[in-house]
Protein backbone atom coordinates (compact mmCIF):
# COMPACT_ATOMS: atom_id res chain seq x y z
CA UNK A 1 0.00 0.00 0.00
CA UNK A 2 1.37 3.42 -0.92
CA UNK A 3 0.69 6.46 1.23
CA UNK A 4 -2.34 6.95 3.46
CA UNK A 5 -5.59 5.14 2.88
CA UNK A 6 -7.42 6.72 -0.05
CA UNK A 7 -10.72 6.53 -1.84
CA UNK A 8 -8.77 5.51 -4.94
CA UNK A 9 -7.54 1.95 -5.38
CA UNK A 10 -5.09 0.83 -8.06
CA UNK A 11 -4.82 -2.90 -8.72
CA UNK A 12 -2.09 -4.51 -10.80
CA UNK A 13 -2.60 -7.96 -12.28
CA UNK A 14 0.33 -9.94 -10.94
CA UNK A 15 -0.43 -13.43 -12.19
CA UNK A 16 2.26 -15.26 -14.12
CA UNK A 17 0.94 -13.94 -17.43
CA UNK A 18 1.00 -10.36 -16.19
CA UNK A 19 4.48 -10.70 -14.73
CA UNK A 20 5.74 -12.23 -17.98
CA UNK A 21 4.30 -9.25 -19.86
CA UNK A 22 6.07 -6.76 -17.57
CA UNK A 23 3.57 -6.13 -14.76
CA UNK A 24 6.27 -6.21 -12.07
CA UNK A 25 7.98 -3.23 -13.69
CA UNK A 26 4.63 -1.44 -13.88
CA UNK A 27 4.10 -2.11 -10.16
CA UNK A 28 7.56 -0.71 -9.35
CA UNK A 29 6.86 2.39 -11.45
CA UNK A 30 3.53 2.93 -9.68
CA UNK A 31 5.17 2.65 -6.25
CA UNK A 32 7.86 5.09 -7.24
CA UNK A 33 5.53 7.67 -8.80
CA UNK A 34 2.98 7.51 -5.97
CA UNK A 35 5.67 8.06 -3.35
CA UNK A 36 7.35 10.85 -5.30
CA UNK A 37 4.35 12.86 -6.45
CA UNK A 38 2.25 12.42 -3.33
CA UNK A 39 -0.78 11.19 -5.25
CA UNK A 40 -3.00 9.33 -2.81
CA UNK A 41 -4.06 5.81 -3.84
CA UNK A 42 -4.08 2.35 -2.32
CA UNK A 43 -1.88 0.06 -4.43
CA UNK A 44 -2.87 -3.61 -4.45
CA UNK A 45 -2.04 -6.82 -6.28
CA UNK A 46 -4.54 -9.17 -7.84
CA UNK A 47 -4.50 -12.28 -10.01
CA UNK A 48 -5.33 -12.68 -13.68
CA UNK A 49 -8.87 -11.74 -14.70
CA UNK A 50 -8.42 -13.84 -17.83
CA UNK A 51 -7.58 -11.12 -20.36
CA UNK A 52 -4.04 -12.38 -20.84
CA UNK A 53 -3.96 -10.88 -24.34
CA UNK A 54 -4.03 -7.34 -22.87
CA UNK A 55 -1.54 -7.78 -20.03
CA UNK A 56 -0.18 -5.96 -18.13
CA UNK A 57 -3.54 -4.82 -16.75
CA UNK A 58 -4.04 -2.00 -14.26
CA UNK A 59 -7.42 -1.25 -12.68
CA UNK A 60 -8.26 2.13 -11.17
CA UNK A 61 -11.30 2.45 -8.86
CA UNK A 62 -12.50 5.72 -7.38
CA UNK A 63 -15.81 7.39 -6.52
CA UNK A 64 -16.60 7.71 -10.23
CA UNK A 65 -16.29 3.97 -10.94
CA UNK A 66 -13.77 1.44 -12.21
CA UNK A 67 -11.61 1.61 -15.31
CA UNK A 68 -9.17 -1.06 -16.52
CA UNK A 69 -6.15 -0.17 -18.60
CA UNK A 70 -4.49 -2.72 -20.89
CA UNK A 71 -0.99 -3.05 -22.35
CA UNK A 72 0.28 -0.88 -19.53
CA UNK A 73 3.97 0.07 -19.44
CA UNK A 74 6.16 1.89 -16.90
CA UNK A 75 6.35 4.80 -19.36
CA UNK A 76 2.56 5.21 -19.30
CA UNK A 77 2.26 5.21 -15.50
CA UNK A 78 2.99 8.89 -14.88
CA UNK A 79 0.43 10.11 -17.40
CA UNK A 80 -2.22 7.74 -16.05
CA UNK A 81 -1.64 8.96 -12.49
CA UNK A 82 -1.64 12.63 -13.42
CA UNK A 83 -4.65 12.61 -15.74
CA UNK A 84 -6.83 9.94 -14.14
CA UNK A 85 -5.98 9.71 -10.44
CA UNK A 86 -5.15 13.38 -9.82
CA UNK A 87 -7.24 15.21 -12.43
CA UNK A 88 -10.10 12.70 -12.81
CA UNK A 89 -9.82 12.29 -16.59
CA UNK A 90 -9.19 8.69 -17.71
CA UNK A 91 -6.77 8.14 -20.60
CA UNK A 92 -9.29 6.91 -23.18
CA UNK A 93 -6.93 5.24 -25.67
CA UNK A 94 -5.55 2.76 -23.12
CA UNK A 95 -8.87 1.66 -21.61
CA UNK A 96 -10.04 -1.93 -22.18
CA UNK A 97 -12.98 -1.95 -19.72
CA UNK A 98 -15.03 0.63 -17.92
CA UNK A 99 -18.56 1.93 -17.49
CA UNK A 100 -19.42 4.20 -20.37
CA UNK A 101 -16.64 2.84 -22.55
CA UNK A 102 -17.59 0.61 -25.47
CA UNK A 103 -14.57 -1.48 -26.42
CA UNK A 104 -14.17 -4.46 -28.80
CA UNK A 105 -12.63 -6.49 -26.00
CA UNK A 106 -15.83 -6.19 -23.94
CA UNK A 107 -17.11 -9.24 -25.85
CA UNK A 108 -14.46 -11.29 -24.08
CA UNK A 109 -16.39 -11.13 -20.80
CA UNK A 110 -19.98 -10.69 -22.03
CA UNK A 111 -20.76 -14.37 -22.59
CA UNK A 112 -18.88 -15.64 -19.56
CA UNK A 113 -20.46 -16.84 -16.31
CA UNK A 114 -17.85 -16.88 -13.58
CA UNK A 115 -18.10 -19.32 -10.70
CA UNK A 116 -14.62 -20.81 -10.46
CA UNK A 117 -13.06 -17.51 -11.53
CA UNK A 118 -15.47 -15.34 -9.51
CA UNK A 119 -12.64 -13.79 -7.45
CA UNK A 120 -9.74 -13.98 -9.92
CA UNK A 121 -8.59 -10.52 -10.91
CA UNK A 122 -10.76 -8.98 -8.20
CA UNK A 123 -9.27 -9.88 -4.81
CA UNK A 124 -5.73 -9.82 -3.48
CA UNK A 125 -4.91 -13.57 -3.42
CA UNK A 126 -2.44 -13.04 -0.57
CA UNK A 127 -5.01 -11.41 1.72
CA UNK A 128 -7.55 -13.70 3.40
CA UNK A 129 -9.59 -10.70 4.51
CA UNK A 130 -10.44 -9.88 0.90
CA UNK A 131 -11.50 -13.49 0.26
CA UNK A 132 -13.69 -13.45 3.37
CA UNK A 133 -15.14 -10.13 2.25
CA UNK A 134 -16.62 -11.97 -0.73
CA UNK A 135 -18.26 -14.74 1.36
CA UNK A 136 -15.03 -16.67 1.67
CA UNK A 137 -15.26 -19.62 4.12
CA UNK A 138 -18.96 -18.91 4.59
CA UNK A 139 -19.69 -22.14 2.71
CA UNK A 140 -17.49 -24.11 5.11
CA UNK A 141 -19.25 -22.53 8.07
CA UNK A 142 -22.64 -23.34 6.52
CA UNK A 143 -21.67 -26.95 5.79
CA UNK A 144 -20.37 -27.54 9.32
CA UNK A 145 -23.24 -25.74 11.01
CA UNK A 146 -26.26 -26.77 8.95
CA UNK A 147 -25.56 -30.02 7.13
CA UNK A 148 -24.49 -33.53 7.94
CA UNK A 149 -21.74 -35.05 5.77
CA UNK A 150 -24.37 -37.07 3.93
CA UNK A 151 -26.39 -33.94 3.21
CA UNK A 152 -23.32 -32.19 1.79
CA UNK A 153 -22.74 -35.12 -0.56
CA UNK A 154 -26.39 -35.04 -1.58
CA UNK A 155 -26.15 -31.31 -2.43
CA UNK A 156 -23.10 -31.91 -4.61
CA UNK A 157 -24.83 -34.88 -6.25
CA UNK A 158 -28.01 -32.93 -6.95
CA UNK A 159 -26.01 -30.05 -8.43
CA UNK A 160 -24.80 -32.31 -11.23
CA UNK A 161 -21.16 -31.29 -10.75
CA UNK A 162 -18.88 -33.59 -12.72
CA UNK A 163 -15.12 -33.87 -12.29
CA UNK A 164 -13.43 -31.13 -14.28
CA UNK A 165 -10.15 -33.02 -14.64
CA UNK A 166 -11.25 -34.63 -17.88
CA UNK A 167 -13.17 -37.83 -17.17
CA UNK A 168 -16.33 -36.02 -16.08
CA UNK A 169 -17.25 -38.53 -13.34
CA UNK A 170 -20.07 -37.30 -11.05
CA UNK A 171 -18.40 -35.64 -8.06
CA UNK A 172 -21.10 -36.48 -5.52
CA UNK A 173 -20.99 -40.15 -6.47
CA UNK A 174 -17.23 -40.17 -6.11
CA UNK A 175 -17.48 -38.58 -2.67
CA UNK A 176 -20.10 -41.13 -1.61
CA UNK A 177 -17.74 -43.99 -2.50
CA UNK A 178 -15.06 -42.52 -0.23
CA UNK A 179 -17.62 -41.80 2.51
CA UNK A 180 -18.82 -45.43 2.51
CA UNK A 181 -15.31 -46.91 2.35
CA UNK A 182 -14.31 -48.83 5.50
CA UNK A 183 -12.76 -46.47 8.02
CA UNK A 184 -9.26 -47.75 8.77
CA UNK A 185 -8.22 -44.79 10.88
CA UNK A 186 -7.62 -42.12 8.25
CA UNK A 187 -9.02 -40.91 4.94
CA UNK A 188 -7.45 -38.44 2.54
CA UNK A 189 -8.54 -35.68 0.18
CA UNK A 190 -6.13 -34.92 -2.67
CA UNK A 191 -6.27 -31.93 -5.02
CA UNK A 192 -4.78 -32.76 -8.40
CA UNK A 193 -3.07 -29.56 -9.57
CA UNK A 194 -0.60 -31.40 -11.80
CA UNK A 195 -1.60 -29.44 -14.89
CA UNK A 196 0.59 -30.68 -17.72
CA UNK A 197 -1.28 -30.11 -20.99
CA UNK A 198 0.56 -27.87 -23.48
CA UNK A 199 -1.43 -24.66 -23.75
CA UNK A 200 -3.36 -25.20 -20.51
CA UNK A 201 -3.18 -22.77 -17.58
CA UNK A 202 -6.57 -23.00 -15.87
CA UNK A 203 -5.33 -24.49 -12.59
CA UNK A 204 -2.31 -22.21 -12.40
CA UNK A 205 -4.39 -19.05 -12.81
CA UNK A 206 -6.98 -20.21 -10.27
CA UNK A 207 -4.36 -21.05 -7.65
CA UNK A 208 -2.53 -17.77 -8.28
CA UNK A 209 -5.69 -15.67 -8.25
CA UNK A 210 -7.89 -17.35 -5.63
CA UNK A 211 -6.11 -20.11 -3.65
CA UNK A 212 -8.56 -19.96 -0.74
CA UNK A 213 -11.52 -21.18 -2.81
CA UNK A 214 -9.66 -24.41 -3.59
CA UNK A 215 -8.69 -24.85 0.05
CA UNK A 216 -12.29 -24.25 1.15
CA UNK A 217 -13.56 -26.79 -1.38
CA UNK A 218 -11.09 -29.37 -0.05
CA UNK A 219 -12.19 -28.70 3.52
CA UNK A 220 -15.83 -29.27 2.61
CA UNK A 221 -14.90 -32.48 0.80
CA UNK A 222 -12.91 -33.62 3.82
CA UNK A 223 -15.90 -33.04 6.09
CA UNK A 224 -18.20 -34.86 3.67
CA UNK A 225 -16.14 -38.05 3.32
CA UNK A 226 -14.78 -38.13 6.87
CA UNK A 227 -11.17 -37.29 6.04
CA UNK A 228 -8.64 -35.69 8.33
CA UNK A 229 -5.77 -34.94 5.95
CA UNK A 230 -5.38 -33.39 2.52
CA UNK A 231 -2.66 -32.90 -0.08
CA UNK A 232 -2.40 -30.40 -2.88
CA UNK A 233 -0.26 -31.99 -5.58
CA UNK A 234 1.00 -29.05 -7.62
CA UNK A 235 3.78 -29.00 -10.18
CA UNK A 236 6.97 -27.26 -9.08
CA UNK A 237 7.03 -25.33 -12.37
CA UNK A 238 4.27 -23.16 -10.86
CA UNK A 239 6.35 -21.27 -8.25
CA UNK A 240 3.91 -18.38 -7.87
CA UNK A 241 0.97 -20.74 -7.34
CA UNK A 242 2.99 -22.69 -4.77
CA UNK A 243 3.97 -19.48 -2.98
CA UNK A 244 0.40 -18.21 -2.76
CA UNK A 245 -0.88 -21.60 -1.62
CA UNK A 246 1.58 -21.56 1.27
CA UNK A 247 0.50 -18.01 2.19
CA UNK A 248 -3.18 -18.95 2.01
CA UNK A 249 -2.73 -22.07 4.14
CA UNK A 250 -0.83 -20.15 6.80
CA UNK A 251 -3.57 -17.52 6.91
CA UNK A 252 -6.32 -20.14 7.02
CA UNK A 253 -4.62 -21.92 9.94
CA UNK A 254 -4.28 -18.64 11.83
CA UNK A 255 -7.99 -17.93 11.36
CA UNK A 256 -8.99 -21.44 12.45
CA UNK A 257 -10.16 -22.75 9.08
CA UNK A 258 -7.43 -25.39 8.80
CA UNK A 259 -6.13 -27.55 11.64
CA UNK A 260 -7.74 -28.85 14.82
CA UNK A 261 -11.40 -28.31 15.79
CA UNK A 262 -12.24 -26.09 12.85
CA UNK A 263 -14.70 -23.29 13.73
CA UNK A 264 -15.16 -24.80 17.19
CA UNK A 265 -16.44 -28.15 15.89
CA UNK A 266 -14.96 -31.62 16.25
CA UNK A 267 -13.90 -31.54 12.57
CA UNK A 268 -10.12 -31.40 12.14
CA UNK A 269 -8.37 -31.23 8.80
CA UNK A 270 -4.77 -30.51 7.83
CA UNK A 271 -3.51 -29.74 4.32
CA UNK A 272 0.01 -30.21 2.98
CA UNK A 273 1.53 -29.19 -0.34
CA UNK A 274 3.40 -31.72 -2.45
CA UNK A 275 5.39 -30.33 -5.36
CA UNK A 276 5.47 -32.60 -8.39
CA UNK A 277 8.49 -32.94 -10.65
CA UNK A 278 6.54 -32.33 -13.84
CA UNK A 279 5.72 -35.84 -15.08
CA UNK A 280 2.61 -35.67 -17.25
CA UNK A 281 1.61 -39.21 -16.25
CA UNK A 282 1.21 -38.04 -12.64
CA UNK A 283 -2.05 -36.43 -13.67
CA UNK A 284 -3.41 -39.99 -13.53
CA UNK A 285 -4.77 -40.71 -10.06
CA UNK A 286 -2.77 -43.79 -9.14
CA UNK A 287 0.48 -42.36 -10.54
CA UNK A 288 -0.14 -39.19 -8.53
CA UNK A 289 -0.65 -41.26 -5.39
CA UNK A 290 2.62 -43.10 -6.00
CA UNK A 291 4.44 -39.79 -6.38
CA UNK A 292 3.06 -38.41 -3.10
CA UNK A 293 4.20 -41.60 -1.39
CA UNK A 294 7.74 -41.01 -2.67
CA UNK A 295 7.69 -43.68 -5.35
CA UNK A 296 8.13 -43.32 -9.09
CA UNK A 297 4.95 -41.94 -10.61
CA UNK A 298 3.52 -44.92 -12.48
CA UNK A 299 -0.12 -46.01 -12.74
CA UNK A 300 -1.41 -49.30 -11.40
CA UNK A 301 -4.29 -51.53 -12.36
CA UNK A 302 -7.72 -50.60 -11.04
CA UNK A 303 -9.67 -51.86 -9.10
CA UNK A 304 -9.11 -51.27 -6.30
CA UNK A 305 -9.97 -47.64 -6.91
CA UNK A 306 -8.49 -44.83 -4.78
CA UNK A 307 -11.86 -44.30 -3.05
CA UNK A 308 -11.30 -47.61 -1.22
CA UNK A 309 -7.51 -48.07 -1.47
CA UNK A 310 -5.61 -44.91 -2.27
CA UNK A 311 -2.89 -42.96 -0.52
CA UNK A 312 -0.91 -45.34 1.70
CA UNK A 313 -3.66 -47.88 1.17
CA UNK A 314 -6.32 -45.65 2.76
CA UNK A 315 -9.61 -44.39 1.25
CA UNK A 316 -8.79 -41.32 -0.83
CA UNK A 317 -10.84 -38.82 -2.79
CA UNK A 318 -9.08 -37.04 -5.67
CA UNK A 319 -10.50 -34.08 -7.57
CA UNK A 320 -8.82 -31.37 -9.59
CA UNK A 321 -8.51 -27.64 -8.87
CA UNK A 322 -11.56 -26.56 -10.87
CA UNK A 323 -13.81 -29.19 -9.27
CA UNK A 324 -12.95 -28.07 -5.74
CA UNK A 325 -13.30 -24.38 -6.69
CA UNK A 326 -16.95 -24.99 -7.63
CA UNK A 327 -17.86 -26.54 -4.26
CA UNK A 328 -18.09 -23.42 -2.02
CA UNK A 329 -20.32 -21.66 -4.57
CA UNK A 330 -22.65 -24.67 -4.75
CA UNK A 331 -22.97 -24.93 -0.96
CA UNK A 332 -23.76 -21.21 -0.65
CA UNK A 333 -26.09 -20.89 -3.64
CA UNK A 334 -27.69 -24.33 -3.66
CA UNK A 335 -27.68 -27.31 -6.00
CA UNK A 336 -30.53 -25.86 -8.06
CA UNK A 337 -28.61 -22.68 -8.94
CA UNK A 338 -25.71 -24.72 -10.31
CA UNK A 339 -27.84 -27.30 -12.13
CA UNK A 340 -29.84 -24.51 -13.77
CA UNK A 341 -26.73 -23.78 -15.83
CA UNK A 342 -25.61 -26.04 -18.65
CA UNK A 343 -27.23 -28.99 -20.41
CA UNK A 344 -29.13 -32.05 -19.26
CA UNK A 345 -26.02 -34.11 -18.55
CA UNK A 346 -23.38 -31.39 -18.23
CA UNK A 347 -24.25 -28.88 -15.52
CA UNK A 348 -22.63 -25.64 -14.45
CA UNK A 349 -19.75 -23.88 -16.15
CA UNK A 350 -16.41 -24.88 -17.65
CA UNK A 351 -13.11 -23.01 -17.59
CA UNK A 352 -11.02 -23.01 -20.76
CA UNK A 353 -7.54 -21.78 -21.58
CA UNK A 354 -7.88 -20.18 -25.01
CA UNK A 355 -4.54 -20.47 -26.77
CA UNK A 356 -3.00 -20.96 -30.18
CA UNK A 357 -3.87 -18.61 -33.03
CA UNK A 358 -6.76 -16.94 -31.21
CA UNK A 359 -7.06 -13.16 -31.26
CA UNK A 360 -7.91 -12.98 -27.55
CA UNK A 361 -5.84 -15.57 -25.73
CA UNK A 362 -6.65 -16.03 -22.08
CA UNK A 363 -8.82 -17.71 -19.51
CA UNK A 364 -12.60 -17.97 -19.99
CA UNK A 365 -15.42 -19.53 -17.96
CA UNK A 366 -18.59 -20.28 -19.91
CA UNK A 367 -21.90 -22.05 -19.21
CA UNK A 368 -21.97 -25.64 -20.41
CA UNK A 369 -23.93 -25.89 -23.65
CA UNK A 370 -22.35 -22.87 -25.33
CA UNK A 371 -21.03 -23.72 -28.80
CA UNK A 372 -17.38 -23.85 -29.82
CA UNK A 373 -18.18 -21.17 -32.41
CA UNK A 374 -19.30 -18.78 -29.66
CA UNK A 375 -16.21 -19.45 -27.58
CA UNK A 376 -13.72 -19.18 -30.44
CA UNK A 377 -15.32 -16.39 -32.50
CA UNK A 378 -17.42 -14.31 -30.09
CA UNK A 379 -15.26 -14.56 -26.98
CA UNK A 380 -11.89 -15.33 -28.55
CA UNK A 381 -12.35 -12.94 -31.48
CA UNK A 382 -11.52 -15.55 -34.13
CA UNK A 383 -7.93 -15.94 -35.28
CA UNK A 384 -5.23 -13.36 -34.68
CA UNK A 385 -4.03 -13.85 -38.26
CA UNK A 386 -7.44 -13.17 -39.80
CA UNK A 387 -7.13 -16.49 -41.62
CA UNK A 388 -10.22 -18.71 -41.15
CA UNK A 389 -10.31 -21.23 -38.30
CA UNK A 390 -9.33 -24.69 -39.45
CA UNK A 391 -9.83 -26.68 -36.27
CA UNK A 392 -9.99 -26.50 -32.49
CA UNK A 393 -7.77 -28.85 -30.52
CA UNK A 394 -9.43 -29.79 -27.21
CA UNK A 395 -8.28 -31.92 -24.32
CA UNK A 396 -4.54 -31.44 -24.55
CA UNK A 397 -2.26 -34.23 -25.83
CA UNK A 398 -5.02 -36.69 -24.92
CA UNK A 399 -7.63 -34.76 -26.86
CA UNK A 400 -8.48 -34.38 -30.49
CA UNK A 401 -8.95 -31.89 -33.29
CA UNK A 402 -12.49 -30.73 -34.05
CA UNK A 403 -12.78 -29.30 -37.59
CA UNK A 404 -14.33 -25.93 -38.40
CA UNK A 405 -17.31 -27.76 -39.93
CA UNK A 406 -18.25 -28.92 -36.41
CA UNK A 407 -17.89 -25.54 -34.70
CA UNK A 408 -21.54 -25.66 -33.65
CA UNK A 409 -20.70 -28.55 -31.31
CA UNK A 410 -21.85 -27.67 -27.80
CA UNK A 411 -19.48 -27.61 -24.85
CA UNK A 412 -20.92 -30.77 -23.33
CA UNK A 413 -19.11 -33.94 -22.25
CA UNK A 414 -21.14 -36.17 -24.55
CA UNK A 415 -21.16 -33.89 -27.60
CA UNK A 416 -17.44 -33.18 -27.47
CA UNK A 417 -16.65 -36.88 -27.01
CA UNK A 418 -18.80 -37.75 -30.03
CA UNK A 419 -16.40 -35.77 -32.24
CA UNK A 420 -13.48 -37.96 -31.17
CA UNK A 421 -12.00 -35.27 -28.92
CA UNK A 422 -12.47 -35.00 -25.16
CA UNK A 423 -13.34 -32.13 -22.83
CA UNK A 424 -10.17 -32.75 -20.88
CA UNK A 425 -9.19 -30.31 -18.18
CA UNK A 426 -9.92 -27.33 -20.42
CA UNK A 427 -7.20 -26.69 -22.97
CA UNK A 428 -8.56 -25.16 -26.18
CA UNK A 429 -6.03 -24.48 -28.94
CA UNK A 430 -7.27 -22.58 -31.99
CA UNK A 431 -5.73 -23.60 -35.33
CA UNK A 432 -6.07 -21.61 -38.56
CA UNK A 433 -5.78 -22.59 -42.23
CA UNK A 434 -1.99 -22.18 -42.17
CA UNK A 435 -1.73 -25.15 -39.80
CA UNK A 436 -0.61 -28.57 -41.02
CA UNK A 437 -2.75 -31.19 -39.28
CA UNK A 438 -0.13 -33.91 -39.76
CA UNK A 439 2.34 -31.65 -37.97
CA UNK A 440 -0.18 -31.03 -35.17
CA UNK A 441 -0.67 -34.78 -34.65
CA UNK A 442 3.09 -35.25 -34.65
CA UNK A 443 3.58 -32.50 -32.07
CA UNK A 444 1.10 -33.91 -29.56
CA UNK A 445 2.19 -37.51 -30.07
CA UNK A 446 5.83 -36.58 -29.56
CA UNK A 447 4.78 -35.08 -26.21
CA UNK A 448 2.86 -38.15 -25.00
CA UNK A 449 5.60 -40.48 -26.28
CA UNK A 450 8.19 -38.62 -24.19
CA UNK A 451 5.89 -38.58 -21.16
CA UNK A 452 5.01 -42.28 -21.25
CA UNK A 453 6.12 -43.90 -18.00
CA UNK A 454 7.05 -47.03 -19.96
CA UNK A 455 5.16 -49.47 -17.76
CA UNK A 456 2.99 -51.02 -20.48
CA UNK A 457 4.19 -52.18 -23.89
CA UNK A 458 1.42 -50.71 -26.00
CA UNK A 459 2.05 -47.19 -24.74
CA UNK A 460 5.85 -47.44 -24.49
CA UNK A 461 6.49 -49.05 -27.89
CA UNK A 462 3.25 -48.28 -29.72
CA UNK A 463 3.48 -44.49 -29.39
CA UNK A 464 7.11 -44.63 -30.59
CA UNK A 465 6.11 -46.62 -33.70
CA UNK A 466 3.28 -44.14 -34.39
CA UNK A 467 5.67 -41.22 -34.06
CA UNK A 468 8.09 -42.87 -36.47
CA UNK A 469 5.32 -43.21 -39.06
CA UNK A 470 4.27 -39.57 -38.62
CA UNK A 471 7.89 -38.50 -39.01
CA UNK A 472 8.13 -40.45 -42.26
CA UNK A 473 4.90 -38.87 -43.50
CA UNK A 474 5.97 -35.29 -42.71
CA UNK A 475 9.41 -36.01 -44.16
CA UNK A 476 8.12 -37.28 -47.48
CA UNK A 477 9.41 -40.81 -46.93
CA UNK A 478 6.16 -42.61 -46.14
CA UNK A 479 4.68 -45.54 -48.02
CA UNK A 480 1.07 -45.68 -49.12
CA UNK A 481 0.24 -48.33 -46.54
CA UNK A 482 1.58 -46.16 -43.69
CA UNK A 483 -1.69 -44.26 -43.30
CA UNK A 484 -3.68 -47.45 -42.68
CA UNK A 485 -0.92 -48.80 -40.44
CA UNK A 486 -1.04 -45.59 -38.40
CA UNK A 487 -4.79 -45.93 -37.86
CA UNK A 488 -4.48 -49.61 -36.96
CA UNK A 489 -1.76 -48.92 -34.39
CA UNK A 490 -3.76 -46.06 -32.88
CA UNK A 491 -6.81 -48.27 -32.37
CA UNK A 492 -4.79 -51.03 -30.68
CA UNK A 493 -2.93 -48.64 -28.36
CA UNK A 494 -6.19 -46.98 -27.37
CA UNK A 495 -7.73 -50.35 -26.51
CA UNK A 496 -4.83 -52.07 -24.74
CA UNK A 497 -2.91 -49.41 -22.77
CA UNK A 498 -2.94 -49.56 -18.99
CA UNK A 499 -3.86 -45.97 -18.07
CA UNK A 500 -5.51 -42.89 -19.49
CA UNK A 501 -2.29 -41.53 -20.98
CA UNK A 502 -1.86 -44.47 -23.36
CA UNK A 503 -5.57 -44.93 -23.95
CA UNK A 504 -5.99 -41.35 -25.16
CA UNK A 505 -2.57 -40.68 -26.72
CA UNK A 506 -3.81 -41.72 -30.20
CA UNK A 507 -6.71 -39.23 -30.13
CA UNK A 508 -4.91 -36.41 -32.02
CA UNK A 509 -3.92 -38.91 -34.72
CA UNK A 510 -7.34 -40.55 -34.94
CA UNK A 511 -9.22 -37.24 -35.22
CA UNK A 512 -6.86 -35.75 -37.81
CA UNK A 513 -7.11 -38.98 -39.82
CA UNK A 514 -10.88 -38.82 -39.50
CA UNK A 515 -11.35 -35.19 -40.56
CA UNK A 516 -8.18 -34.35 -42.52
CA UNK A 517 -7.24 -37.59 -44.26
CA UNK A 518 -6.74 -35.67 -47.52
CA UNK A 519 -3.76 -33.90 -45.91
CA UNK A 520 -2.17 -37.23 -45.00
CA UNK A 521 -2.72 -38.48 -48.54
CA UNK A 522 -1.16 -35.33 -50.02
CA UNK A 523 1.93 -35.85 -47.88
CA UNK A 524 2.23 -39.52 -48.83
CA UNK A 525 1.05 -39.69 -52.43
CA UNK A 526 1.94 -36.23 -53.75
CA UNK A 527 4.93 -35.52 -51.46
CA UNK A 528 3.29 -32.17 -50.72
CA UNK A 529 2.32 -30.34 -47.53
CA UNK A 530 -0.86 -28.35 -48.35
CA UNK A 531 -0.19 -25.90 -45.50
CA UNK A 532 3.48 -25.49 -46.55
CA UNK A 533 4.70 -26.34 -43.05
CA UNK A 534 6.66 -29.61 -43.39
CA UNK A 535 10.09 -28.47 -44.61
CA UNK A 536 11.28 -31.62 -46.42
CA UNK A 537 8.26 -31.37 -48.74
CA UNK A 538 8.65 -27.68 -49.62
CA UNK A 539 10.06 -26.04 -52.71
CA UNK A 540 11.16 -22.40 -52.48
CA UNK A 541 11.60 -20.44 -55.70
CA UNK A 542 12.36 -16.87 -56.76
CA UNK A 543 10.45 -15.46 -59.72
CA UNK A 544 13.12 -13.64 -61.74
CA UNK A 545 10.53 -11.43 -63.41
CA UNK A 546 9.32 -10.08 -60.05
CA UNK A 547 12.70 -9.97 -58.28
CA UNK A 548 14.20 -6.47 -58.12
CA UNK A 549 17.53 -7.63 -56.73
CA UNK A 550 17.07 -5.58 -53.56
CA UNK A 551 19.00 -8.18 -51.57
CA UNK A 552 16.62 -8.31 -48.60
CA UNK A 553 16.13 -12.08 -48.94
CA UNK A 554 19.85 -12.62 -49.38
CA UNK A 555 20.57 -10.70 -46.17
CA UNK A 556 18.28 -12.86 -44.01
CA UNK A 557 19.15 -16.28 -45.45
CA UNK A 558 20.90 -18.16 -42.59
CA UNK A 559 22.74 -20.59 -44.90
CA UNK A 560 23.66 -18.19 -47.74
CA UNK A 561 21.61 -20.18 -50.25
CA UNK A 562 20.54 -17.08 -52.23
CA UNK A 563 22.92 -15.80 -54.87
CA UNK A 564 22.78 -12.87 -57.28
CA UNK A 565 24.17 -9.41 -57.90
CA UNK A 566 22.54 -6.26 -56.50
CA UNK A 567 19.69 -4.96 -58.70
CA UNK A 568 19.82 -8.22 -60.65
CA UNK A 569 17.37 -11.15 -60.26
CA UNK A 570 18.42 -13.57 -57.52
CA UNK A 571 18.12 -17.34 -57.42
CA UNK A 572 18.15 -20.08 -54.79
CA UNK A 573 20.78 -22.83 -54.49
CA UNK A 574 18.49 -25.75 -53.60
CA UNK A 575 21.40 -27.86 -52.39
CA UNK A 576 21.98 -25.35 -49.59
CA UNK A 577 18.38 -24.22 -48.96
CA UNK A 578 16.90 -25.42 -45.66
CA UNK A 579 13.38 -24.24 -46.60
CA UNK A 580 13.15 -22.00 -43.55
CA UNK A 581 10.93 -19.56 -45.52
CA UNK A 582 12.69 -16.49 -44.12
CA UNK A 583 13.18 -15.20 -47.67
CA UNK A 584 9.46 -15.68 -48.35
CA UNK A 585 8.50 -13.75 -45.21
CA UNK A 586 10.97 -10.94 -45.99
CA UNK A 587 10.27 -10.30 -49.68
CA UNK A 588 8.09 -7.21 -50.28
CA UNK A 589 7.63 -7.82 -54.01
CA UNK A 590 5.90 -11.22 -53.91
CA UNK A 591 8.87 -12.65 -55.81
CA UNK A 592 9.40 -15.65 -53.51
CA UNK A 593 6.98 -18.56 -53.63
CA UNK A 594 6.68 -21.62 -51.40
CA UNK A 595 4.83 -24.74 -52.52
Summarize the structure.
The protein is of the alpha/beta class. It folds into 5 domains: 9-105, Glutaredoxin (3-Layer(aba) Sandwich), CATH 3.40.30.10; 128-338, Rossmann fold; 349-432, Ubiquitin-like (UB roll) (Roll), CATH 3.10.20; 437-525, NADH-ubiquinone oxidoreductase 51kDa subunit, iron-sulphur binding domain (de novo design (two linked rop proteins), Up-down Bundle); 538-594, Alpha-Beta Plaits, CATH 3.30.70.20.
Unreliable sequence segments: none
- Percent in helix: 25-40%
Write out the CATH superfamily name of the largest domain.
NADH-ubiquinone oxidoreductase 51kDa subunit
Domain count: the total is 5
Highlighted features:
Rossmann fold, 5 domains, single chain, 24 helices, Ubiquitin-like (UB roll), 5-stranded mixed β-sheet, 595 residues, alpha/beta, 15% strand, Glutaredoxin
What does this structure look like?
This protein has 5 domains: 9-105, 3-Layer(aba) Sandwich (Glutaredoxin), CATH 3.40.30.10; 128-338, NADH-ubiquinone oxidoreductase 51kDa subunit (Rossmann fold); 349-432, Ubiquitin-like (UB roll) (Roll); 437-525, de novo design (two linked rop proteins); 538-594, Alpha-Beta Plaits (2-Layer Sandwich). 51% of the residues are buried. Helix 6 (138-146) runs parallel beside helix 10, helix 17 (437-451) packs antiparallel against helix 18 and helix 18 packs antiparallel against helix 19. The strands form 5 sheets. The protein has a 5-stranded mixed beta sheet with strand order 2-1-3-4-5, covered by helices on one side. A 5-stranded mixed beta sheet has the order 11-10-14-12-13. It is an alpha/beta fold and 595 residues long. It is globular and about 85 Å long. It contains 24 helices and 18 strands. It is 39% helix and 15% strand. A hairpin with a 5-residue loop joins strand 10 (349-356) and strand 11. The mean pLDDT is 95.
